[in-house]
Structure prediction request, 343 residues.
Amino acid sequence: MTIDELALSFEGLLEKKKKVTIISHFNPDGDAVGSSVGLNGYLLDMGYDSRIVLPSTIPPFLDFLDPEHNIIYYSEDKQRAKATVNDCDMIVCLDFNKPERTEWMSDLLTSAKADKVMIDHHPSAVREGFSIVISDTGASSTCELLFRVLMAFRHTEGRASSLSLNSLTAIMAGILTDTNNFNNSVTPHTFNIAAEMLKAGVDFDFLNNMLFKRFSESRMRLMGHLLKDSMKLERNSQVSCMVLSLEEKKKFGIQDGDTEGFVNLPLMIKGVEVSALFSESEDFIKVSLRSKGSFSVNALAKSYFNGGGHERAAGGRLYIPIGQVRDYFSESLEQFLLNNRRV
Ligand code: 5GP
Ligand code: MN
Prediction:
């Protein structure tokens, strides 16, 4: 079935339902929050009893998308999150391709009785347990795909202005964050729908300021430190590796989420094809991988970093001492290149 046909089946299924729960992935990013808030707004306007349940809290720079604090967080109120997931007749999963991406909500999601629909743009979507899967790896973001789905609904008749300005703003925020301000994965369709949203009243300057121009001073200084003291280029300067320890995070007084986007910076260097950032937290080392050529960081993340993602943006986790990370990365890359193509 085409995306438009799947969208109409989704709309048909929705018409039989009253209570909807929207779920997105652990450590929600702009695309997760934007798609959740965007769809939730549409459903509320349509008279549904709709709620968003996320496994963990959203980063502070995205707070403006949920000004009334309506999002329910499993990490903060398990009882309410459980009740909301179990007491609904439809669950819409946004911006993730398998239940494990919801971390500690995985069992709750899998065992819930409601009809489940997935809308996502990651490769290898798991179909088991879902009534409808709308998956398009060609979409820049889940927000772009969601917008396409909503525009295919009979109710909207393809008019962006049939969505509220709040929904459109949230959807645009997801597109902007996942594409890093139209830098990655964009297609003519991305620009077309962005134009439609601006015509419908979305304030691009406002979003640009809210999403990309509100660094704290400590975040800016940490960025300088990472580039100056941590970034090491290897493999003939085609691969960049940055490591950030808990100690350094404390020294710079930064919060979780403050390293968002830093992994992209080394790709601005001519010749650098792959960039890795390892950021230590209390329980594990968060791995972020990016590439700008044909190198698949998704495959690298799956093979060596307990993760996955997209071809050019992926992530995962490591459970080794921070001091061993650089060697582990070099060795993994060596192995990976022996088994795959060379960078
Ligand atoms: P980031 O580096 O921004 O945290 O993540 C980039 C992309 O990698 C995300 O959009 C997501 O698709 C994927 N990703 C990040 N962490 C994980 C992980 O732990 N497991 C999997 N499967 N994918 C991840
Ligand atoms: Mn996404």
About this structure: The two ends are 37 Å apart (CA to CA). Residues 246 and 282 are 8 Å apart (CA to CA).
